[in-house]
Amino acid sequence: MLGLICVVVLAGCADAETGDEPTENDVEAAENLSALDSEFVQIPFENAFARVYRIDLPPGDSILAHDAGPRVVYSMGTYSLAFETNGEASERSFEGGAVHAHDAGVHSVSNMSDSLASYVVFERIGEVDSVDSGDASTLDEVDIPDRSVHEVLLTNDAFTVHRISLVPGDELPEHFGYDRVVFALSDYTVTLTNPEDGSSMERSYEAGDVHDHEAGLHRVENTGSTPADYLVVAFKP
Question: pTM for this one?
Fold first, then answer.
């Protein structure tokens, strides 16, 4: 998970009524997004290194100031958000399928558009194992069939976000991946094969499902009847 939380770093933002600058204690007191009691925030998945949020923010509504770790955000639709950073207000528009990254910090967000702001946030909450890929190819390096699609939507020091569209019968060749979270963009069935021991398992997912994979090798084949569309968010060591 596979949306958007815009950073609002409240350190330095003026108080709406008094004009006073917020204190360091105010910033430190901000709860993590996972602790907020908000009807607009759901947490469909969490493990030792990642927490995934699904945000559905109606027009005119806001999410209060909260803290969050480094994260990437995937927009599920088109919308505009107003936010403040260091006391400066701004507004940005996002289209469905867009991905962007945020550093750790305190933030809040308001939906200024006429449409529902739906997005998925992949937050880094812990360390991942440092696993050597050896001579194995990564997902960036393998060739996939012409009918299918692989795109790198974003890459930085902390994350790489891949979008996969694998048509029925096509296969992603054996490749190495870091610890990662997978967000289903469609309903699909795939068979995952571990080339090290030859074991295979078939799994079916519905759009919005989230699961994880440990760092290592595998091969993926679409053994269903519909395209397998999904995001892979790799958490770099």
Answer: 0.85
